[in-house]
Amino acid sequence: MNAHSKPDLRELSYAEAIREAMDIALTNDPSVILMGEDIGVYGGAFQVTGDLVDKHGTDRVMDTPISELGGAGVAVGAALTGLKPIFEFQFSDFAALAMEQIVNQAAKVRYMLGGSVSVPLVMRFPAGSGTGAAAQHSQSIEAWLGHVPGLKVVQPSTPEDAKGLLLAALEDPDPVMIFEHKILYKMKGHVPEGHYTTPIGKAAIRRDGKDVSIVATSLMVHKAMQAAEQLEADGIDAEVIDLRTVRPMDRDTVLSSVRKTGRMICVYEGVKTLGVGAEISAMVAESDAFDYLDAPIIRLGGAECPIPYNPELEKAAVPQMPDILAAARDVVKGRV
Amino acid sequence: MNAHSKPDLRELSYAEAIREAMDIALTNDPSVILMGEDIGVYGGAFQVTGDLVDKHGTDRVMDTPISELGGAGVAVGAALTGLKPIFEFQFSDFAALAMEQIVNQAAKVRYMLGGSVSVPLVMRFPAGSGTGAAAQHSQSIEAWLGHVPGLKVVQPSTPEDAKGLLLAALEDPDPVMIFEHKILYKMKGHVPEGHYTTPIGKAAIRRDGKDVSIVATSLMVHKAMQAAEQLEADGIDAEVIDLRTVRPMDRDTVLSSVRKTGRMICVYEGVKTLGVGAEISAMVAESDAFDYLDAPIIRLGGAECPIPYNPELEKAAVPQMPDILAAARDVVKGRV
Amino acid sequence: MPDTIQDTNLPYAIRAYSPERLREALKKMYLVRKFEEGAEDSYMRGLIHGTMHLSIGQEASSIGSTMALTDEDKITSTHRGHGHCVGKGADLSKMFAEFFGKESGYCRGRGGSMHIADPSKGNLGANGIVGGGLPIAVGAALSAKRLGTGAVTVCFFGDGANNEGAFHEALNMAAVWKLPVVFVCENNKYGMSTSTERSTAVKNIAERAAAYNMPGVTVDGNDFSAVTEAVDAAVERARNGEGPSLVENLTYRWRGHSKSDRNRYRTKEEINEWMGRDPIPAMAKLLMDHQIVTEDDVAAIEAEANQIIADAIEFATQGEDPKMDEVTRDVYTPESAA
Amino acid sequence: MPDTIQDTNLPYAIRAYSPERLREALKKMYLVRKFEEGAEDSYMRGLIHGTMHLSIGQEASSIGSTMALTDEDKITSTHRGHGHCVGKGADLSKMFAEFFGKESGYCRGRGGSMHIADPSKGNLGANGIVGGGLPIAVGAALSAKRLGTGAVTVCFFGDGANNEGAFHEALNMAAVWKLPVVFVCENNKYGMSTSTERSTAVKNIAERAAAYNMPGVTVDGNDFSAVTEAVDAAVERARNGEGPSLVENLTYRWRGHSKSDRNRYRTKEEINEWMGRDPIPAMAKLLMDHQIVTEDDVAAIEAEANQIIADAIEFATQGEDPKMDEVTRDVYTPESAA
Ligand SMILES: Cc1ncc(C[n+]2csc(CCOP(=O)(O)OP(=O)(O)O)c2C)c(N)n1
Ligand SMILES: Cc1ncc(C[n+]2csc(CCOP(=O)(O)OP(=O)(O)O)c2C)c(N)n1
Ligand SMILES: [Mg+2]
Ligand SMILES: [Mg+2]
């Protein structure tokens, strides 16, 4: 993930990896369409769709009006009747406008209809802070959707997974919500060629360790890896788990790790209270792994405020590498 | 709470208590207005506003068109400019249509503007299952709003608190979201006359006990109380805490209880994963109270499905009294 | 799909449809009425829980608006959707079984009245969210256009729903993309207790079609022939690739909005006036006037409908309850459930 | 508020406003232009992070639409809102300080370009959510009506925003309740990269006013007098209790949508054509033609604007950064923060 790549391996950025996945899907499956605001000639607000419209045309790469609720609903209706839409929200924040279609319709219709339909819908949400775009363009709302049965929710942290999870989402008959971190779009990493899938519902152990389990999501995985490297100097051997999927959560991988290390830190960018780390923590605290815990379960989540504009304040509002370092030292040394 | 009332104490239903609070507010404060769908001549889908329109007129008790996003936004704009709106969603599920105004506007505008405005807005959400109204009319979504800094979120479980928390919300300069359980609307209980407030942010210990802390919300408080009574026969002395406020959560009351009992069960109706109980559990697991825990923290939350229509299935989808009984017995006897 | 008799002095429906189709339509109108009366009765007797929204009085709109549709065509429906289901060919037994919360119901007892659907017949389902079906219908029309199926989608919604943002966004997209969808507004004067005068800035919902550059027409929604004439033209327009239309059927619900309604927002006189414009006898008269049925035929059709409903109630009563350990079944599609 | 010169041969603005007000308006137009050029420059030099949306080319619309407003009147603005702020009397120094993320900025560095507001002057703020301000404006108008303040609210939004459901819901409620609000659509032909032809089913946004039974008018948004004439009439109508109106100002943004724009959706010719219709020289000419200013006056006004901007940048540069331990300050109002 961090410069793990060998010279002979092809590298792509996270955005390019997503684009490649969409290109493969558009090429292989005529029922796939892309929908979203300014994803055509503009190439998407973050240039993720890029020039796909030139190759696949405006019928397959559809610019929608600025109508998030309606657009999401059109995607739901299309998914119910033979298409496989990949719907891009321009910023994840705007999903607040479409919660009704995502939650009351897409997530529930299969259940409400007793299983007679499926909704093969993929939604992409550029998420997170760090771009100086302030409170209405920087949220992490994966916890909302993670709370909703009927949805699957993933947060790729690497270019490889970004492609693999998107292709897996397209093979999934149910709605899959993909939270992509905007800061990761430009990150490069090895991405295998062609079609492959990364399993939805499986966490990845990014670093083996025995002293403390750091369970992180999205961009925080990289901060956790940096912290783990530095912790080595302290003689602390951290295990870093990339959660990858918020729903369904990979209980086994997390619990096994905690049984081994006896200590856990959850690191996530969303607001701490009722964020993803609350579930990770509670899942461990109610399991048999509880008996292996030697210390409280630490959560490092976003500050209890909207994301501020000032760049230094913006950093102060989400967990940073030194916070992880400090927490790991504390929890290992019994200081909490 | 359950027939605790003395003969000389005045009883009202939960719905009547809320109506009385609104009546007092409309009478005392000319800036208060009620907004919502069919809250006027119809009296509200659950007859909570009742005949208030006859007394206060259609300018103060305003029927809105079926426009949840716009209606909520009008309430935000009115709150920014001198009115104190009490906005009723007909069912909490429809808040999914208004998340943008609730979250991106009401919750954030004060912060985004550096503190130069406040949003004295109260929103009421009839919530929960048990009415046979199925998946789009039965959700518990307090966890979504509990995740949002800038909001306060309460869940009254008694008529007395329903009135007191609403009057407290009206005195609060910031947006307060009130989740009212539809099944409680007809429940009777003592309600003091006149104006009083119940503090936002304070849990209530409904029953003292030493063996296990049962932290419950809304309707679940009553199921927990019933369970606690039955547990007496087993020689289990359960403490029942009514959380009352989801944001800000009353850390002190919960932690003190856990320090005393060493065991905790969280009972909540919302979907278990990423529901309110996840936060209660995680808050304890990361605190010093962790050291007092003699057993894993049990969560009893809603099943991982939308609310089904069939009445028996509907019951199976949320925690019931026997579930609490069984969990308490297990956790006290060391079976988990 | 409409047949073709060319005599333009005849009412449209008589020209456009065979006697068989017209008798079937009358029967469907009776079926909707009897289904709802049966549902109401079951509710009163405590056999059904939850709530229900009856469309009694609106049968010409629901049945008339679905005449031109094949099983490949789609509909999206509303909370007041029993008529649409029947129009789209639903099995009354499975509808009743769903009402009773049975495994043999359309939704295996998970959905109830507000979610009856029959995807095999192109019925994408009722919806508990006012306006929820509008963008979904546009999505179905998008599929039809992209996949070249030739299918048309009829999207039902109420006068109240026309003030939802979803209405605006859906109609705009349908128009911009010229999709094969017909928006059928069943204007029964009220959204719950709120009259269109108090909720809607225009007099007729169809006036709003101009904001989307699509044809909009208002018709007597209790006149079967007028409804079919307007909707069929819109369906044909959609089928020909000319884009969406808005048809407004003016009608009235006799019953309260739902079981909690005290009917305080309208007068007895108004209700009585509209009960005098019952669309079912009007349809029977139309068919009798044109020698398509006799009075006896009508009685026989009504009796047949009664029998179907009685059988449906029996079927529903006999049905099995869902298994309690299957409460989380069907949240995810099996191959993918984690 | 408009003054009164009765000679109807004169352009409206000349009749309606005193020479002082007109000179002030020209100065404000320069201030918007210079502010944005300064912001752009600062951005290029790495002094500002985040994004910004420049309204260069649209100054007649923003300044013209706020002429009739007092400090009691309200506005809601958009992501492209610097002009509206200046129109409503904002202090350029505090605007720049906000851009620079300083404690001395309008939002104490918490909001940035997309959230500048000045409630003390009735400016309820820019908005990062397209369409987000529409219902809020209606709420402000509701307050004015209920509290009897006589205030009018001007609600700015873009052509792109007109396809949001919030637009529909807001305009409908404003009309049903006859509220004192003026909806000002700044139609600059594109929502980001999507032209109105590709996004909107009507040609002119003002056509949609009919769906809300309110007056709708389309004017040359680069013609200051045309803008004031249309908006002032709507403000007066609102002030008189006659309800809302929709005014559409046709204009153009010279710059890309934001810093990420490759300008691939429009031609150089189109941009050049509109740059030829610069509203600022047009306004200067109008005032010169009517002997309100001389060429030297215009130069002096421009120089004054330049100086104000230079001072503002200096003020912003000197400003203190927020304290890092105050990151959660102002989430809640102090008395109530828990
Ligand atoms: C989004 C949403 N808001 C409110 C409701 C509650 N509700 C159900 S039906 C209804 C009235 C709908 O009126 P209309 O669209 O005219 O349909 P009608 O009931 O008259 O057939 C309301 C307010 C809902 N189900 N969904
Ligand atoms: C709800 C929402 N959707 C999308 C965006 C992203 N976005 C910001 S500005 C913009 C274009 C808005 O177009 P228009 O309303 O015409 O205003 P203009 O930028 O042309 O001034 C878009 C799509 C947003 N900020 N909010
Ligand atoms: Mg209606
Ligand atoms: Mg624009």
From TrEMBL, chains A, B:
A GO term, aspect molecular function: oxidoreductase activity
Database matches in SUPFAM superfamilies: Thiamin diphosphate-binding fold (THDP-binding), TK C-terminal domain-like
Known cofactor(s): thiamine diphosphate
Keywords: Oxidoreductase, Thiamine pyrophosphate
Domain Transketolase-like pyrimidine-binding: 12-187
Record InterPro entries: THDP-binding, Transketo_C/PFOR_II, Transketolase-like_Pyr-bd, Transketolase_C
Superkingdom, natural source: Bacteria
Pfam families, A to Z: Transket_pyr, Transketolase_C
UniProt-listed NCBIfam families: PRK09212.1 (NF006667)
Name of the protein this chain belongs to: TPP-dependent acetoin dehydrogenase complex, E1 protein subunit beta
From TrEMBL, chains C, D:
Domain of life: Bacteria
Pfam families on file: E1_dh
Cofactor: thiamine diphosphate
Keywords noted in UniProt: Oxidoreductase, Thiamine pyrophosphate
One annotated GO molecular function: pyruvate dehydrogenase (acetyl-transferring) activity
Domain Dehydrogenase E1 component: 28-322
Entry-linked CDD domains: TPP_E1_PDC_ADC_BCADC
Catalytic activity: N(6)-[(R)-lipoyl]-L-lysyl-[protein] + pyruvate + H(+) = N(6)-[(R)-S(8)-acetyldihydrolipoyl]-L-lysyl-[protein] + CO2
SUPFAM superfamilies according to UniProt: Thiamin diphosphate-binding fold (THDP-binding)
GO BP terms: pyruvate decarboxylation to acetyl-CoA
Function: The pyruvate dehydrogenase complex catalyzes the overall conversion of pyruvate to acetyl-CoA and CO(2). It contains multiple copies of three enzymatic components: pyruvate dehydrogenase (E1), dihydrolipoamide acetyltransferase (E2) and lipoamide dehydrogenase (E3).
Name of this chain's protein: Acetoin:2,6-dichlorophenolindophenol oxidoreductase subunit alpha
Lineage of producing organism: Bacteria, Pseudomonadati, Pseudomonadota, Alphaproteobacteria, Rhodobacterales
